[in-house]
């Protein structure tokens, strides 16, 4: 629908398809012209109209003309509301400025002076003005200031628009690790009025071609090390698709053979940023991790991205001019909004193509990193870094973790090294971070293990999310705050996605009853904190008892020989299912199946302890999540434990 709306806007107002608007407001006149207000239900004559009219400075105070009577419903042209939205985006030189009368006894208005569509583009505009000479992007020997970065983004936007015909609402796809171009595209693509779609760098050509087709990308930027995948994806797309293929552009460290640098070098000198016509215009299209199913295309708006950026920056205590180390992939929920967040605070982005624990410690020492992020696997990597790779931290380093349940033992271990962990939880559907485990100062005095257990809880919604709750999905009643009753986590608010791309049915289903249904199962503690127990798909039901795989994993993680653990259901003829643990041991460590099982039985009710333990590497998504569906398939293939045992007898 939004695509249809966008093309209708283009037809109605050709100015938006070419140069964009300049946000200048020069002409105010006495002529009053009314537009239909999309917020006014014309079929309901009792609804109080809020009128859009031309502002006239000559109207004496309190004497704005009374609004016209509502037109008959049939007379409202379908395009009227589109005209309304587009007219709010600012006026060109010589055009009229429109004002919405909000009323408050006919004294309040919405106009360019007091309303602009919220957009993260404004963060880089401000960063260039305030922090212009300060470093924005560091990558190897490369350094760009904020003034340079803003200029480069604008030139890329100009080149995309003028050389490749990228128009408002077009999708620009990117397959790249965290190199400077990937950072800049988070601003350049929205500046061109287009929608940024970043792909998971671990996808194979088949998946990339499916996503290219689904997204309808017009331009496809691929980092040089991923060119084989990119080219193979385009080849597959060409074989299965009659539509025009996206233009392929390369991103390379070798600036001489880099299409991206060519865009920067050969862009037109002048380009007006295409600010969103409406703050709900899409800014990005993010495919989910595909942990439980085929990735879904989640649409973010400028408004949601703006709000979630501010909320994330606040939740994570990012004050002015931080140094941020890029260990969260920018392709995942737009790097948890922090390409925009670091600009908001005029910080320095330390970009990395790949990293190990050694690279992390080295970068922290070299650049004075103050903030970084990472899934619990990254924390685990830090906690288990070989002594030769470790370096003392130059100061406190704040690490935001999320994306998967952080085992308390891992939280404990990284905090021992001097990191300060912030635990956030969210989904692609909530622009990444949606809750934060808000830390209470009185908890500092608790024993370390208790602190880690408290920090492993997911907490409360952040300030931009209206509400988070744990509900019975059938009755929609809230679960009691008893730390035991399990329900589904649900969200509502301004940082819930606009919807699934091209899938209105799935969008409506996901938001049934006025809440976003997450599929995550949780309890609420007496202090109100939410604690995740499992994904609905991952819970194990054994002899009628629900077993939280997260709880069993936390215990296995606390075994000194264990590096990683994941627990899934193994079908069982007698119990229905039994817990089956997949375990990866630390280098040089050893443990047997019987040892792990008895370790768990000493710390958990016996029915929760795994009945099977398999020692092997974990299959992972590139966002560091264990692919439990792969492990479930393996456990299923093992067959019923009870049957095997009884046949042995
Ligand atoms: N802090 C956290 N603690 C526990 N689980 C978390 C945390 N953060 C995220 N998650 C898990 O990650 C999920 C969101 O992941 P994401 O949106 O990246 O895609 P996915 O759900 O893994 O993929 P798909 O929906 O395609 O299966 C949440 O629903 C939750 O299960």
Automatic annotation (TrEMBL):
GO MF assignments: 4-coumarate-CoA ligase activity; trans-cinnamate-CoA ligase activity
Organism in which the protein naturally occurs: Sorghum bicolor (Sorghum)
One Pfam family of this chain: AMP-binding
Annotated AMP-binding enzyme C-terminal domain residues: 551-625
AMP-dependent synthetase/ligase domain ranges (all copies): 125-501
InterPro entries noted in UniProt: AMP-bd_C, AMP-bd_C_sf, AMP-binding_CS, AMP-dep_synth/lig_dom, ANL_N_sf
Protein known as: 4-coumarate--CoA ligase
Keyword annotations of the record: Fatty acid metabolism, Ligase, Lipid metabolism, Magnesium
């Amino acid at each position: 629908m939004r695509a249809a709306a966008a093309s209708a806007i283009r037809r109605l107002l050709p100015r938006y398809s070419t140069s964009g608007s300049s946000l200048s407001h020069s002409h105010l006149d006495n002529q009053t012209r009314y537009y239909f207000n999309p917020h006014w239900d014309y079929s309901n004559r009792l609804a109080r109209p809020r009128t859009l009219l031309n502002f006239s400075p000559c109207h004496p105070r309190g004497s704005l003309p009374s609004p016209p009577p509502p037109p008959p419903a049939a007379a409202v042209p379908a395009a009227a509301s589109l005209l309304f939205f587009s007219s709010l985006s600012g006026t060109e030189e010589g055009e009229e400025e429109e004002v919405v009368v909000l009323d408050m006894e006919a004294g309040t208005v919405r106009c360019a002076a007091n309303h602009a569509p919220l957009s993260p583009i404004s963060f880089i505009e401000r960063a260039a003005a305030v922090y212009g000479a300060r470093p924005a992007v560091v990558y190897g020997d490369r350094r760009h200031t904020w003034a340079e970065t803003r200029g480069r983004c604008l030139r890329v936007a100009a080149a995309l628009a003028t050389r490749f015909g990228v128009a408002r609402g077009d999708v620009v796809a990117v397959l790249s690790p965290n190199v400077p171009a990937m950072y800049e595209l988070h601003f350049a693509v929205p500046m061109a009025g287009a929608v940024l779609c970043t792909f998971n760098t671990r996808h194979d050509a088949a998946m990339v071609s499916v996503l290219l087709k689904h997204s309808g990308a017009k331009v496809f930027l691929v980092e040089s090390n991923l060119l084989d995948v990119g080219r193979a994806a385009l080849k597959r797309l060409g074989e299965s698709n009659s539509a025009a293929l996206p233009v392929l552009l390369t991103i390379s460290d070798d600036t001489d053979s880099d299409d991206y640098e060519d865009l920067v070098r050969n862009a037109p000198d002048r380009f007006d940023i295409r600010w969103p016509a409406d703050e709900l215009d899409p800014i990005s299209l993010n495919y989910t991790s595909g942990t439980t199913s085929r990735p879904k295309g989640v649409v973010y708006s400028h408004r949601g991205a703006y709000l979630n950026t501010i909320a994330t920056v606040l939740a994570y205590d990012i004050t002015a001019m931080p140094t941020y180390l890029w260990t969260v992939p920018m392709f995942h929920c737009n790097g948890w909004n922090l390409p925009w967040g670091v600009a908001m605070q005029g910080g320095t982005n330390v970009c990395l193509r790949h990293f190990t624990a050694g690279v992390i410690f080295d970068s922290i020492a070299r650049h004075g990193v103050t903030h970084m992020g990472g899934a619990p696997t990254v924390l685990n990597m830090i906690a288990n870094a070989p002594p030769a790779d470790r370096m003392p931290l130059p100061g406190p380093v704040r690490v935001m973790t999320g994306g998967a349940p952080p085992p308390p033992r891992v939280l404990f271990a990284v905090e021992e090294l001097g990191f300060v962990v912030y635990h956030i939880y969210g989904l692609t559907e909530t622009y990444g971070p949606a809750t934060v485990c808000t830390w209470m100062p009185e908890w500092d005095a608790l024993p370390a293990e208790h602190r880690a257990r408290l920090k492993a809880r997911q907490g409360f919604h952040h300030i931009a999310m209206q509400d988070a709750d744990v509900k019975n999905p059938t009755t929609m009643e809230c679960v009691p705050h008893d730390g035991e009753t399990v329900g589904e986590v649900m969200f509502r608010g301004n940082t819930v996605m606009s919807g699934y791309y091209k899938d209105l049915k799935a969008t409506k289903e996901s938001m049934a009853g006025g809440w976003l249904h997450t599929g995550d199962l949780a309890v609420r503690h007496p202090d109100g904190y939410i604690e995740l127990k499992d994904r609905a798909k991952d819970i194990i039901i054994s002899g009628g008892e629900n077993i939280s795989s997260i709880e069993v994993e936390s215990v296995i993680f606390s075994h000194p020989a264990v590096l990683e653990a994941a627990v899934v259901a193994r079908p069982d003829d007698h119990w229905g299912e039994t817990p089956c643990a997949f375990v990866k041991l630390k280098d040089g460590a050893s443990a047997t199946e019987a040892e792990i099982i008895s370790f768990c039985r000493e710390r958990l009710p016996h029915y929760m302890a795994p009945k099977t333990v398999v020692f092997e590497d974990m299959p992972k998504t590139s966002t560091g999540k264990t692919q439990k569906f792969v492990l479930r398939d393996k456990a299923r293939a093992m067959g019923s434990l009870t049957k095997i045992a009884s046949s042995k007898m």
